Amino acid sequence: MSSAEVAWADVAALEDVWEGDVVEVDVGADRVLLAHLPGGQLKAYQAACPHSEFPLAAGAFDEGVLTCAAHNWEFDLATGESLNPSDCRLYSFPTFATTERIFVGIPRDGRRHYNRCRGG
Ligand code: FES
């Protein structure tokens, strides 16, 4: 996705998303989950669980794996892929950080960015 296809939004202070933590932010019509992975990498995904839309930020985030608090689906937040069940993937947004701020790229397509998966 080129930067011409996304609108970059300043969404949070880097110091407010600690390493090993996840934070939910609203960006226009999208609700975005920011994940600061162990080791320092930042990722941005849909914030609602693709199973039944429970807020993923309410789940447990341990060793880079987020477990949804509603029905225990598990997601690898390095890739966005589900581990249990194994056939689902979180919608992923481009993201980057400066020394102080975190930015998320929202596609300029006028749609809500979100995957749903069946199962469970
Ligand atoms: S809503 Fe997340 S596992 Fe069901």
Describe the structure using short key phrases.
4-stranded antiparallel beta sheet; 0% helix; 120 residues; binds FE2/S2 (inorganic) cluster; single chain; Rieske Iron-sulfur Protein; mainly beta
Briefly, what is this?
With 120 residues, the protein is mainly beta. The chain has no helices and 11 strands.
Give an account of the 3D structure.
This protein is mostly beta strands. The chain has a single domain (3-105), classed as Rieske Iron-sulfur Protein, CATH 2.102.10. Helix content is 0%, strand content 42%. It contains no helices and eleven strands. The protein has a four-stranded antiparallel sheet with strand order 2-3-4-9, with no helix packed on it. Strands 5-6-7-8 form a four-stranded antiparallel sheet, with no helix packed on it. It has a three-stranded antiparallel sheet with strand order 1-11-10, with no helix packed on it. β3 and β4 form a beta hairpin. FE2/S2 (inorganic) cluster (FES) binds next to loops.
Describe the secondary-structure layout.
Blueprint: E1 6-13, E2 21-27, E3 30-36, E4 42-46, E5 60-62, E6 65-67, E7 74-76, E8 82-84, E9 92-93, E10 95-97, E11 101-107
Antiparallel strand pairs: 1-11, 2-3, 3-4, 4-9, 5-6, 6-7, 7-8, 10-11
Bound molecules: FE2/S2 (inorganic) cluster.
Number of domains: 1
Number of strands: 11
Strand order of the largest sheet: 2-3-4-9
Q: Structural class, from secondary structure content?
A: mainly beta
What is the H-and-E element order?
A: EEEEEEEEEEE
By DSSP (H or I, 4+ residues per run), the number of helices equals 0
Overall geometry comes to globular
Give the biggest beta sheet: 4 strands, antiparallel
Terminal CA distance reads 31 Å
Q: How helical, in percent, are the residues? A: under 10%
What is the typical, i.e. mean, pLDDT?
94
Named at the architecture level, the CATH assignment is: 3-layer Sandwich
Q: Which kinds of small molecule does this entry bind, naming each only once?
A: FE2/S2 (inorganic) cluster
Within CATH, the superfamily carries the name: Rieske [2Fe-2S] iron-sulphur domain
CATH topology title: Rieske Iron-sulfur Protein
CATH class: Mainly Beta
